Inverse folding.
């Protein structure tokens, strides 16, 4: 098949059965490999949906500047989608996140403004709001509160997983903004309310009642419960320590030839935990959001020896 633009390559990612691992309870685990999107992550879906719907609703035009606070993957997804219309993009990125993501955003034409890492995502959000007020004809999609974030996955990731694995019994995904989990879980529960859902966070995130603190697992973790979450769509919450996430990043490379980021390692660790709790022979779909290649400068495969983490 011949494609006419990189944007056409978004979505329809492969679902790979992880067969090289002993999985508890004779369960089967199927990983949705989001690194196969053209910008390399699950967030390409979000970038495309946000830009396309804002155009369709007349909220932006060809002169609009897109501003967003992002740790990286959303910026790459937005820059990729915006390029189709030659829109300008400005991203506020807390310093400390991976250099590769910043380089990729810039390569796609974005302007990067770094905010102090001590102020975290909150500082980046405040800065983005201020810039949005200063700049006429600028647009702030705000993934952390925009209902179009979960809608993206309700319309794309959920249907793709259900189509490839109609016999699915459980769904596992990490939460940063919570959009991937919430939209997909909602879709799957509407299809079959017996499907069990599990949300994954790193230690240092608050969903299981813990106190917020810094963590090395990149892309997931929340300081507040995402507005898209409700008890109806969450059956299990797994809090995965950095050690386990990075252990499985290495294992997935060595045993399955899969080069995935630490949020995928955490999601896989949670899937193995969940398998112990589910009936025998359950089928678990898990989202692997991106690849390890964008974390090589952070020594993703040499995590325990790196004091930065
Ligand atoms: N993993 C990675 C690597 C990410 O960049 C993100 C997005 N921050 C997530 C997982 C979580 O996705 P969401 O924001 O939809 O919860």
């Amino acid at each position: 098949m011949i494609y006419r633009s990189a944007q056409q390559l978004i979505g329809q990612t492969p679902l790979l059965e992880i067969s090289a691992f002993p999985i508890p309870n004779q369960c089967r685990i199927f990983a949705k490999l989001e690194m196969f999107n053209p910008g390399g992550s699950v967030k390409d879906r979000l970038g495309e949906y946000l830009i396309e719907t804002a155009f369709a609703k007349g909220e932006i035009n060809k002169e609009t500047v897109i501003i967003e606070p992002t740790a990286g993957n959303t910026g790459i997804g937005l820059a990729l989608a915006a390029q189709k219309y030659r829109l300008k993009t400005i991203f506020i990125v807390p310093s400390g996140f991976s250099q590769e993501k910043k380089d990729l955003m810039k390569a796609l034409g974005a302007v990067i403004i770094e905010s102090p890492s001590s102020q975290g995502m909150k500082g980046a959000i405040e800065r983005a709001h201020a810039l949005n007020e200063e700049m006429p004809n600028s647009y702030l999609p705000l993934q952390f509160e925009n209902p179009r974030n979960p809608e993206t996955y309700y319309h794309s990731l959920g249907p793709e997983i259900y189509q490839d694995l109609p016999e699915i019994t459980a769904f596992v995904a990490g939460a940063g903004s919570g959009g991937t989990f919430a939209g997909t879980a909602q879709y799957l529960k509407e299809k079959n309310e017996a499907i069990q859902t599990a949300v994954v966070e790193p230690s240092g995130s608050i969903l299981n009642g813990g106190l917020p603190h810094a963590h090395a697992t990149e892309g997931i973790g929340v300081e507040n419960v995402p507005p898209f979450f409700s008890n109806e769509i969450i059956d299990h919450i797994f809090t995965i320590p950095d050690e386990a996430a990075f252990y499985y990043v290495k294992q997935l490379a060595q045993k399955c030839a899969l080069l995935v980021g630490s949020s995928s390692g955490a999601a896989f660790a949670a899937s193995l935990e969940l398998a112990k709790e589910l009936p025998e022979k359950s089928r678990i779909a898990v989202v692997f959001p991106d690849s390890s290649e964008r974390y090589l400068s952070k020594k993703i495969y040499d995590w325990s020896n790196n004091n930065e983490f």
The chain is about 35% helix and 15% strand. The pocket of 4'-deoxy-4'-aminopyridoxal-5'-phosphate is lined by residues 41, 43, 71, 73, 174-181, 219-220, 261, 263, 289-290 (CB under 6 Å). The chain has a mean pLDDT of 95. The chain has two domains: 6-36+147-298, 43-139.
